[in-house]
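Next up, a specimen:

>
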Amino acid sequence: MNTYKNIFLIITAFLIFSGCAPSLRFTGERFRQPIVDKNISNSNNNSSSSATEGIASYYADQFHGKKAANGEIFDMHTMVAAHRTFPFGSIVKVTNLENKKIVNVRIIDRGPFKLERIIDLSLGAAKEIDMVKTGTAKVSLELISIGDNKYQK
């Protein structure tokens, strides 16, 4: 009977302390190694062969001045974005399919964390393609150049 009690205590302690682990979004540990997206053509590290379509959102005040996943400080007024798999430093052409406005952004962060979205733009980039009022927009992404995936310290 005492053995079951000890096993129960060990499992309970493990579950409690595993919930206290830091978020990977801010530590960047998960993203220090190069990440390869199956949709990216890596010919001479310059361009992709196809565009991806989906829903974009933007992020601003809540993260302004905080570290992005690549280690640099997020400035919501710059032309940057979060993408799940593109390497840090990649330049992505984002086209708002509703109004055909275009902005080029540099990937510095990971996200979006809502599965139906394909990119999170900074407020500055969202303003460029006129999607601030709606909060989201149907967009096309085209990889202009693949970044070096460097983590800033």
Q: What stands out?
A: Confidence is low (pLDDT under 50) at residues 21-49. The chain has three helices and six strands. Residues 25-145 form a domain with the Barwin-like endoglucanases fold (CATH 2.40.40.10).
